[in-house]
Amino acid sequence: MTNFISDAIQNLATPMILFFVLGFISTIIKSDIEIPQAISKVLAIYFMIAIGFKGGVEISKTGIDISLYNAIINSVFIGISTPIVAFLILKYIGKIDNINSGAISAHYGSVSVVTFVTAISFLNSKSIDFSGYMAGMMALMESPAIFVSILLVRIFSSQKISTLKSNFIDLLKESLFNSSVVLLFGSLVIGLIVGEKGMTSVKPFLVDPFNGILTLFLLDMGMIAGQRISEFKKVGFFLSVFAICMPVMSASITILMSSLFNFSLGDTFLFSVLAASSSYIAAPAAVRIALPQANPAYYITMSLAITFPFNIMFGIPLYFSLINYW
Amino acid sequence: MTNFISDAIQNLATPMILFFVLGFISTIIKSDIEIPQAISKVLAIYFMIAIGFKGGVEISKTGIDISLYNAIINSVFIGISTPIVAFLILKYIGKIDNINSGAISAHYGSVSVVTFVTAISFLNSKSIDFSGYMAGMMALMESPAIFVSILLVRIFSSQKISTLKSNFIDLLKESLFNSSVVLLFGSLVIGLIVGEKGMTSVKPFLVDPFNGILTLFLLDMGMIAGQRISEFKKVGFFLSVFAICMPVMSASITILMSSLFNFSLGDTFLFSVLAASSSYIAAPAAVRIALPQANPAYYITMSLAITFPFNIMFGIPLYFSLINYW
Amino acid sequence: MTNFISDAIQNLATPMILFFVLGFISTIIKSDIEIPQAISKVLAIYFMIAIGFKGGVEISKTGIDISLYNAIINSVFIGISTPIVAFLILKYIGKIDNINSGAISAHYGSVSVVTFVTAISFLNSKSIDFSGYMAGMMALMESPAIFVSILLVRIFSSQKISTLKSNFIDLLKESLFNSSVVLLFGSLVIGLIVGEKGMTSVKPFLVDPFNGILTLFLLDMGMIAGQRISEFKKVGFFLSVFAICMPVMSASITILMSSLFNFSLGDTFLFSVLAASSSYIAAPAAVRIALPQANPAYYITMSLAITFPFNIMFGIPLYFSLINYW
Amino acid sequence: MKKLEIIIESVEKRKVCRLLDQIGVSGYTIIDNVLGRGSHFTRSGTELSEIMKSSLIIVVEKDEIISKIIDVIKNEVLKFYSGKLFLSEVQIIE
Amino acid sequence: MKKLEIIIESVEKRKVCRLLDQIGVSGYTIIDNVLGRGSHFTRSGTELSEIMKSSLIIVVEKDEIISKIIDVIKNEVLKFYSGKLFLSEVQIIE
Amino acid sequence: MKKLEIIIESVEKRKVCRLLDQIGVSGYTIIDNVLGRGSHFTRSGTELSEIMKSSLIIVVEKDEIISKIIDVIKNEVLKFYSGKLFLSEVQIIE
Ligand SMILES: Nc1ncnc2c1ncn2[C@@H]1O[C@H](COP(=O)(O)O)[C@@H](O)[C@H]1O
Ligand SMILES: Nc1ncnc2c1ncn2[C@@H]1O[C@H](COP(=O)(O)O)[C@@H](O)[C@H]1O
Ligand SMILES: Nc1ncnc2c1ncn2[C@@H]1O[C@H](COP(=O)(O)O)[C@@H](O)[C@H]1O
Ligand code: NA
Ligand code: NA
Ligand code: NA
Q: Which residues neighbour ligand 5 (ion) by CB within 5 Å?
């Protein structure tokens, strides 16, 4: 417990988290700081390239072994089970209608790149290793939840859901080849091919300034989250509680599951963070296409303004101490 | 004198200043170089974060002592006296109407981040130290001049100035929580909290490429200044002279004032640069809201196309030699 | 031959080229990766500043000697002869009309900054030196081809070409002071002035992350090239073949020519790459103004979607082995 | 000639363009990154995803084609997504 | 129905939106980063501050509400700031 | 009063503005980075050069001046470049 508190304080006192808080506050006090969207977009791309590439280089060093297969199984399991659990809770405990339940569970089943990146930065600060393929696992966990959720909506809805055929094709494209999946997998494969020799030439850009750039990106994320907070009341009490309890639950289940596979400390931790994280780039776009009747004010606000801040500020040290001191 | 000349030449021969000149020339010859505004904006944010954060880390090392209180007094004094002096000169010597006098004095009383950053880079090249809290002093000096100037306009105008109430609220927000103030103070506090340990993780982004990024930013500033130069004739003789003499005067007075407090060489120099610098981001936006009847062609052109280039090219070595060889 | 193959494979296995391929593929599979144009533009500016400045600093070290005059003669010769050869081939062998022949030859006579930058990165990976003034040679070779091509169109067209006078003025400005020319020459002069001392202060931005940033830029270029590929069929068989054979021919002739001057290996290689490269920033803009009747689908697609990928993937190792193993 | 201004969520832009191409319009013009407020939610455009932004698509066409467009957009797009259609008189000069 | 196009300095955008919300319009659409020239100064949009840029705000509403908007904008905004109001006929389809 | 909407390739923007200034219009408004499709090629705006983008220029003026603008643009610009001119009725409020 004291360990959790000291971890949490230590986590809160990193420049990254503090800049997130600064961004959040600056929006609340209506400051006119503005990070242009072009910058947010390229920073998101930077992080996907950087972690994918670094992961690939790591794999090229260690090679592939049995643990990779275990990791894939674990990822697919998390990607499928999380949205099912979320959907059932939302529908039966929260009494949320099918469509909004499906929309929200798609977000909680999918993953957040920035949460993952912050977790990596947390591990680095503690000099704890993790496997190179974890970036690939994140890519694997991006899309399944979206399809599972739509399937759930279709199964549970008596009246026909009027998703048009043309929308389904758009959705497939959007989900299978969405930018995170392509960039993460692509960079991982590139890292694998070029190995350590290729790393030296790009290290001053893809590795060294990583934490510093994260600082700028989290300032931006803080502002984006802060702007959403005004929609908070539309979300209501149940969904607000859900947005905090669901990640903790997903992380806990994942930690239990992962213990079956004997993953390293770093990998188990990253799996728990991925399970706990909720998407706010890929999932919203896909869900808006697949389930247009769902209310974006719910899923975006929950994912961006509640779960994301909770995860990077409190979730990360919490899941870490759950693993360590259980 | 020979020292000033050698300093000036040395200052002019840095990549930063030369890229500024390149930007300026490229606009004059109508080249189609275009640095997108998204980039200019994020670079401005970068510099505020970088100097605020670095300042905070410095303070965390040295602690706070009596000199901080002196510095605050000095800052407030400069922030209040400069616009008053400017206003009186404009009104009584220049015979400029109240509203434009107020608008212009708001700019010269406030400060310019890029001028400050260039001055820091000048100090670094000479390995001269300065206090960590100077970034905070800059933040302190951003807004007072704007309020003082508006007050002056109200006092001196016999007919009612028709600033609407809703505008005054916008103005308050714009001035107190404008992006420079929030980012500078925020980053300073963050630097103070995380200290040297936090610095290591972000140094490759916030410190190492500082001068290089400044190069790109000054190229952009050169182009912005160059584009304004066509408005030069609208400014007229008196205001053009004012745009060069006012900074020299402010710097001189500040150097005298600062000698009362026994600040270090670096701090005295930075105070003089802050006093001499005129705002072209925060002040124009605030003044456009508070004094819409004032002519932007005056204040933007003076501040951006005359005072800013003068300060970074000649003012910086001049103020430095004034301190040293007086 | 085996050397070419091993060079080619080694070149293909660099992060830069692989990210180009990733960008290309991601567009083919219709992924929604999007690098905002503001970023593409500033990256292009970054590379021009970086290579210009570095070139200038190199010259400041070695001084100017006879080889510079030879290099200038060589550049002007290439810049004038390449478009003439291209024009004659297009007109007499390809039976392309005068205007489109002129438009296309302007592109193949001019140069591509990114191809040049990739070639430099190829040389660096082999630790082969080249002269500082090569960046200046690139700047020299940007514009002549455009004027030569327009002249050719005028000479060969019996009916009057209706370029308006006002257009010709726009064209002159666009070509002589276009951003590449000004940035390359400007940065070169700045590098020359500040020398090695100035280099240290900007190295962490202009030198260290060079290859890494190139990675991001080539990802973007891959996407841009991929988007053009759908226009491929409009280009037709002859022009597609031309887009691959012309660069090989230009490079070969240039290698022969350069051998007369006794340039170093690195310089000869860079001259061949410059001759082989075709413009897709400066030339399209200039040609659209000067020869509006020409079809952009031809020249942009050829230059961007065929010649550029060919050059960076296969041309660079090919020209290198031509020089070495002839 | 009529001018139809279509304000549509950016996620649907690709689809609307596809529909316009299928109908065979002679051309259209797109303004991206449009913000706004309507009866649904405020499009402030600050999110990292595209869902809080609109695109404004302008089509100038003959009355019959415009009617067809309106029909198709109503059925294929506006049943599920918020969006607005504004119609006005215009003259094509060239 | 009438379409009102409001061209306003970007510094005043927040205020105009506030006024429109107060009047109770059913919606509006904003195009940012608009440049131009009028009788005051050329908005070239190159400065680091927002003051040399315009926003174009489009409101489609019933005639009474449009009149109200015009009144309010004239009194609260255009007395001090440059800006233009263009009014035209339009039909709301959906 | 008439509103003329000029859709023009971005490479020609500077020239069109110069022509408008010469004619002596009271003002104009420019929306940049406009995409579209017409009879020539699709402006997708992805290239590094400006040639695959359009600018939309709006001029509101008296009928005589609008006719003059149309004449000049037709002769000096649209002979060589693709582009569209849309004309409609509008009322200037302020
Ligand atoms: N009355 C209106 N005038 C102008 N634009 C509107 C109006 N109503 C809605 N819009 C635009 O259409 C979008 C969708 O509207 P809605 O479907 O009502 O949420 C809004 O975000 C606005 O950009
Ligand atoms: N005649 C006009 N046609 C179109 N836009 C105009 C016109 N006059 C002014 N504008 C726009 O309104 C802004 C403010 O105009 P002004 O208040 O006259 O400086 C200008 O920057 C233009 O964007
Ligand atoms: N019917 C139309 N409606 C709206 N915009 C059009 C139309 N036709 C052409 N445009 C616009 O005008 C540009 C040039 O058209 P074009 O000269 O036909 O290639 C296109 O890229 C579109 O942006
Ligand atoms: Na998850
Ligand atoms: Na000052
Ligand atoms: Na060439």
A: B 277
H helix or E strand, kind and range, residue B179 = helix B179-206
Look at B219 and C193 and tell me if their CB atoms are within 8 Å: no
- Give the distance (Å) from ligand 2 centre to CA of residue E86: 10
Domain count, chain D: 1
Q: Which residues of E touch B219 (CB under 8 A)?
A: none
Distance CA B272, CA B254 (A): 5
Output the six-digit token pair for B317: 């070595």
Residue A110 DSSP class: S
The model's pLDDT over C156-185, given as tens digits with 9 standing for 90+, comes to 886 555 555 556 676 777 677 888 889 999
Q: Which residue of F has its CA nearest to D89?
A: F88
State chain B's mean pLDDT as an integer.
90
Task: State the distance from the centre of ligand 5 to the C-alpha of B158, rounded, in angstroms.
Answer: 28
In a domain, D29, yes or no: yes
Residue F94 in this model has a pLDDT that exceeds 90: no
How many angstroms separate the alpha carbon of residue F88 from the centre of ligand 1? 22
How far apart CA B294 and CA A187 sit, in angstroms, is 54
What are φ and ψ of residue A131, in 5° steps? -75, 150
Do the beta carbons of residue B275 and residue B79 sit within 8 Å?
A: no
* pLDDT of B105 above 60: yes
Output E54 or B63, whichever has higher pLDDT.
Answer: E54
Tell me if C310 sits within 8 A of C247, measured CB to CB.
yes
Q: Which domain holds residue A239?
A: 2-325
Which pLDDT value is given to residue C163?
54
Please provide the DSSP assignment of A280-299 as one string: SSHHHHHHHHH-TTS-HHHH
Provide the 10 A C-beta neighbour count for residue B293: 16
Q: Does A127 touch chain B (CB under 8 A)?
A: no
Q: Is residue F94 part of a domain?
A: no
Distance CA E4, CA C124 (A): 60
Mutate to test the interface with D, among A227, A289, A295, A304 (most CBs of D within 10 A): A289
Kindly state whether residue F78 falls inside one of the protein's structural domains: yes
User: What is the model's pLDDT at position B202?
Assistant: 94
Q: For residue C162, what are the contacts with CB-CB under 8 A and spacing of at least 6?
A: F79, F80
For the cut 90, the answer to whether the pLDDT of residue B178 exceeds it is: no
- How far is Cα A201 from Cα A191, in angstroms, rounded to an integer? 12
Chain E residues in contact with D81 by the CB 8 A cut-off are: none
Classified as helix, coil or strand, F48 is: coil
Q: D39-42 contacts: CB < 8 A, separation 24 or more? A: D39/D82, D39/E26, D39/E27, D40/D82, D41/A296, D41/A297
At A161 the pLDDT is: 54
Instruction: List all residues whose CB is within 6 A of at least one atom of ligand 3.
Output: D 26-29, 58-61; F 7, 36-40, 43, 54, 82-84
> Can you give the CATH number for the domain in which D22 is found?
3.30.70.120
Q: Please report, for residues C104, C291, C308, C310, the alpha-carbon distance to residue C296 in angstroms, rounded to integers and kept in the order given.
A: 9, 10, 16, 20
Question: Counting beta carbons within 10 angstroms of the beta carbon of residue B127, is it exposed (0 to 12), middle (13 to 18) or buried (19 or more)?
Answer: exposed
Chain A contact partners (≥3 CB pairs within 8 A): B, C, D
Ligand 1: which atom is nearest the Cα of residue E26?
1
Count of the separate structural domains present in chain A: 1
What pLDDT was estimated at residue C88? 96
Cβ distance of E52 and B297 shorter than 8 Å: no
Distance (Å) of CA C63 to CA C116, C268, E32: 23, 19, 51
Q: What is the CATH number of the domain that holds A62?
A: 1.20.1530
Chains that touch F (3 or more CB pairs under 8 A): C, D, E
Q: Is D94 within a domain?
A: no
- Domain with E72 in it: 2-89
Q: What phi and psi, each to the nearest 5 degrees, are found at residue B14?
A: -90, 150
**Which chain E residue is nearest to residue F58, measuring alpha carbons?**
E36
Which ipTM score applies to this complex?
Answer: 0.93
The pTM (predicted TM-score) of the whole model is 0.93
